Amino acid sequence: QVQLQESGPGLVKPSQMLSLTCTVFGDISTNYAWSWIRQPPGKGLEWLGVIAYDGSTYYNPSLKSRTSISRDTSKNQFSLHLSSVTPDDTAVYYCARKPLIAGSKYDTWGQGTQVTVSS
After folding, report:
1. What phi, psi does 88 have (nearest 5°)?
2. What distance in Å separates the CA atoms of residue 84 and residue 77, rounded to the nearest whole number?
3. What is the C-alpha separation between 56 and 61, in angstroms, rounded?
């Protein structure tokens, strides 16, 4: 059974870069896409972007200019980089896995990590 674990700083200053890492514990198959999702306080889930098994990436258009997702297959990790953060980027950040099957839903989530943007 695969498990996901997010890691990174809990506090980031405005205008800085936010970088989070998701470590995948267990078998990694090529049949999945790996996403970053966040939930600001009092709001719903917001999809940030995804990296597929072949390394291709897709981003939320509203955040595309500030978002980058990369991976390190040797460490079973993929990372989120969000530049020029503001207090509006304060949220719980999740990594999640989705099978590459049409209509599928996320089947595995990390526990989430709180990130606060504040000076």
Report:
1. -65, -15
2. 23
3. 16
